[in-house]
Amino acid sequence: NGATYDRLATGSSANLTAATQRGLMTTRPGDWSVYHDPAVGVLATVTKAAGGAGVRHVCTSISSKLIVIFAAGGIFKMYLRDGASGVGPILWASGAFESAAQVERLAFSGLNIIGSPNTAMTFEFSAAPNAANYEVVSMTGYDII
Questions:
Q1: Closest-CA residue to 25 (of 2, 8, 4, 13)
Q2: So what's the pLDDT on residue 66?
Q3: Of 68, 121, 130, 141, whose Cβ has the fewest other Cβ atoms within 10 Å?
């Protein structure tokens, strides 16, 4: 609180918005992790909701998996968006080729991709896979003010 020695510093919203910074931290304040593991044939998309006035999401890692069991479907793109699914500006993009009997994995860590204040952040595939195929997405990050 700026006047006394605090024994415990947490990543609570009250501490994140406090005027006084203090102490050493073993993790960043406001660390978060989100994932989507839908049923076969369903679009994988995960969104970290807007954090409130002045709060920006910072994406530190993303991972995706495309499991193709039967029919191939072509090229799939993955987007990290500054906003909601399908509509936010694209902050990062990559692609994967869907061919029969394969598993396509993508994982990046050590990122520091900063979103806009009070805006959701979304990581998603561009389209749903064929009915027998499967997508998974996840992302981690932290919040800054």
A1: 8
A2: 85
A3: 130
The pTM score is 0.76
* Greater model confidence, 61 or 128: 61
Residue 121 confidence (pLDDT) above 90: yes
User: Which pLDDT score is estimated for 73?
Assistant: 62
Closest by CA position to 94, among listed 83, 104, 82, 103: 104
**Rounded Cα gap, residues 79 and 125, in angstroms:** 6
The helix (run of H) or strand (run of E) holding residue 59 is strand 56-68
The model's confidence at residue 94, banded by pLDDT at 50, 70 and 90, is: confident
What tokens does 13 get? Answer: 């919203």
For residues 12 and 18, give the distance between their C-alpha atoms in angstroms, rounded to a whole number.
10
Higher pLDDT, 104 or 41: 41
Strand order in the sheet with 45-48: 45-48, 121-125, 74-81, 90-98
Give CA–CA dist 44/134, Å, rounded.
Answer: 8
Q: How far apart are CA 130 and CA 86, in angstroms?
A: 19
